[in-house]
Specification:
The protein is an all-alpha fold. It has 13 helices and two strands; from the N terminus they run ααααααββααααααα. Helices cover about 75% and strands about 0% of the residues. Strands 1-2 form a two-stranded antiparallel ribbon.
C-alpha cells in the first residue's frame, strides 16, 4: 500500500475512533441520566451495539459519502486526507469544550473545502435527491437539517403517547420501563454505529477505488471491520463530557423521558441509515431531549443557553472545517 493511501486509511479509522468517543456514548446518555443503568454496564452496551451497527445495516451511507466530491484519481487521496484532518481537529476541539457538535457536518465541510481548494466548485457533487435517497452535498445538508427536527417532534409525540397510555400505571410498570430503556438504547447505539461507521467506510472505499486497489465503491470486508472496531474502541473510552451535556444539562430527564428520547432518536437515525443520509446522531439525540421537555410542557425548564451553544456549533462547523481542510490540503501539497 502506497504511503499516501496508507495515511488516508489510517486517518479514516482515527476519525471513526474520535467519532466513537466524541459522539457514540451519547447513545446511552439518557440511560445514565435517568439512572436506569450505571455508567459501566451502559457503556458496555453501547460498545457492543455500536460495533454491530456498521456490519448489519448496509452501506447506503458509505455510498453517499464517497460520492460527495468528484476529482481525478490522482487528487482523491489528498482531498480525503485534508478533509479528515479538518474533521479530526474539529472533533477534538469541540470534545475538549464539551460541545455536542456533529462529526458528520465536520466531514462534509472538510470534503467541500478540500474539493474546492483542489479543483474548484465543479469538484463538488452538489446533487439533491434521487427519489428518497440523498445525493451530493445538498441532499446531505437537507438530511442534516431535518433530522434534529424529526428527533424533537418524534420524542414529543412518543412522550405524549406514553404519558397517556401509562397515566394510571402503578409501580409494577417500573421494571418493564427499565427494560424498554435498555432496548431503546441498544437500538440507538446500533443505528448510530451504522450511520457514523459507514462515513469512514465510504472515504476508504473512495481512496481505494481512486488508487486502483478496488474496482468499485463496495468496500472490502476488512474496511468495514476496521471502521466498526475503531468506532467501538472510541466509544469504550467514553465521551463523558458530551454525555453530561446531552443527558443532564439540557433538561432534567425522568425514565419515561429517556425512553421517549432514545426511541425517537433510534427511529430517525435508522431511517436515515437505510436511506443513505449521513446525519448527526448527536444533534438528533440532543434535539429529542428538547422534544421531551416540550412533551412535558415545561419549555421554561429547558436550558436554552446550552441549546443555543449547540446551534452555534451546528452553523459554524461546515464553514470552519471547509477552511481547515483547504489549509490542510495546502500543507499536504507542500509536504509531498
Amino acid at each position: 500500500m502506497e504511503p499516501g493511501l496508507a495515511i488516508a486509511v489510517v486517518l479514516a479509522f482515527v476519525f471513526a475512533f474520535t467519532n466513537g468517543f466524541h459522539d457514540e456514548s451519547n447513545s446511552i446518555a439518557t440511560l445514565v441520566a435517568t439512572r436506569a443503568a450505571r455508567p459501566g454496564p451502559a457503556l458496555a452496551l453501547a460498545v457492543v451495539f455500536v460495533f454491530i451497527g456498521p456490519l448489519v445495516l448496509g452501506s447506503a451511507v458509505a455510498t453517499t459519502i464517497a460520492g460527495l466530491v468528484d476529482v481525478s484519481p490522482s487528487e482523491m487521496t489528498a482531498v480525503v486526507t485534508a478533509a479528515l484532518v479538518a474533521a479530526l481537529v474539529w472533533n477534538l476541539a469541540t470534545w475538549y469544550l464539551g460541545l455536542p457538535s456533529s462529526s458528520g457536518h465536520a466531514l462534509v465541510g472538510g470534503l467541500v473545502g478540500a474539493g474546492i481548494a483542489e479543483a474548484g466548485l465543479d469538484a463538488v457533487n452538489w446533487g439533491g435527491f434521487d427519489g428518497w435517497r440523498p445525493t451530493g452535498v445538498i441532499g446531505v445538508l437537507v438530511g442534516l437539517a431535518i433530522s434534529p427536527v424529526l428527533g424533537a417532534v418524534g420524542a414529543l409525540v412518543v412522550l405524549r403517547f406514553l404519558c397517556r397510555a401509562l397515566r394510571r400505571g402503578t409501580q409494577r410498570f417500573a421494571t418493564p420501563l427499565l427494560r424498554a430503556q435498555w432496548v431503546a438504547s441498544a437500538l440507538l447505539a446500533t443505528s448510530r454505529g451504522a450511520n457514523d461507521g459507514q462515513k469512514a467506510v465510504g472515504l476508504v472505499a473512495a481512496v481505494l477505488l481512486a488508487n486502483g486497489s478496488s474496482s468499485s465503491l463496495v468496500a472490502p470486508t476488512w474496511v468495514t471491520l476496521g471502521a466498526a472496531g475503531s468506532i467501538a474502541v472510541g466509544t469504550a473510552f467514553g465521551g463523558w463530557r458530551i454525555v453530561r451535556t446531552v443527558g443532564r444539562r439540557i433538561f432534567d430527564l425522568r425514565p419515561l423521558d429517556g425512553l421517549a428520547s432514545a426511541s425517537a432518536s433510534a427511529a430517525v437515525i435508522l431511517g436515515a441509515s437505510f436511506a443513505g443520509a449521513p446525519v448527526s446522531g448527536t444533534h438528533v439525540v440532543a434535539s429529542s431531549v428538547v422534544g421531551v421537555g416540550g412533551g412535558r410542557r415545561r419549555w421554561g425548564r429547558i436550558r436554552w443557553t446550552v441549546v443555543r451553544e449547540m446551534g452555534i456549533a451546528w452553523l459554524t462547523t461546515i464553514p470552519a472545517t471547509a477552511l481547515l481542510a483547504a489549509v490542510a490540503l495546502g500543507f499536504w501539497r507542500w509536504l509531498t
